[in-house]
């Protein structure tokens, strides 16, 4: 048995600890935002946040997550109340096929969590591991720049509501 805390909810799963986190999320928790692209850690489509770090969930064994909290695209907002990054991607029409987008957003979220108001240069450097086969990188960067500009900077002891 493995307990995974995903988007603030604890789930106890009867799975092999070696099962990649991506499979646990998609096949056992019905969280299908993170995508299977390459299964080799080379495309970023499966990116989620574990603890405070963006990780490729196709390579991370579920049993290695431990007590760290997992965040997926489903935890950032809803269609009715999208998070800042989700809103930025919609406003900039950043998705073409959409397959890479959840991974792009989660890697960007990890950046904005630790660097609110990140610069375009920081965004480009951070997103370097994530590939978009549709080639919509310019709109993706524009969407994240817009979200960074809309991200409030927390002061010590204050929580930041990420939803727009
Ligand atoms: S599916 Fe995980 S990096 Fe490509
Ligand atoms: S929008 Fe199609 S892979 Fe990025």
How much strand content do the residues show? Answer: 5-15%
In the CATH scheme, the class would be Alpha Beta
* Whole-angstrom Rg: 15 Å
Shape: globular
What fraction, in percent, of the residue positions are helical? 25-40%
GO molecular function: 2 iron, 2 sulfur cluster binding; metal ion binding; oxidoreductase activity
Protein name: Aerobic-type carbon monoxide dehydrogenase small subunit (CoxS/CutS family)
Domain 2Fe-2S ferredoxin-type: 1-76
Keywords: 2Fe-2S, Iron, Iron-sulfur, Metal-binding, Oxidoreductase
Features:
binds FE2/S2 (inorganic) cluster, 164 residues, iron-sulfur, Ubiquitin-like (UB roll), 30% helix, alpha+beta, 5 helices, two-stranded antiparallel ribbon, three-stranded antiparallel sheet
Walk me through what this model shows.
With 164 residues, the protein is an alpha+beta fold. The protein has one domain (2-150): Ubiquitin-like (UB roll). Helix content is 30%, strand content 12%. The protein contains five helices and five strands, in the order E-E-H-E-E-E-H-H-H-H. The protein has a three-stranded antiparallel beta sheet with strand order 4-3-5, covered by helices on one side. A hairpin with a 2-residue loop joins strand 3 and strand 4. Helix 2 crosses helix 5. The longest helix is centred in the middle third of the chain and has 14 residues, at 101-114. The protein is globular and about 40 Å long. The relative contact order is 0.16. This is Aerobic-type carbon monoxide dehydrogenase small subunit (CoxS/CutS family). GO terms for molecular function: 2 iron, 2 sulfur cluster binding; metal ion binding; oxidoreductase activity.
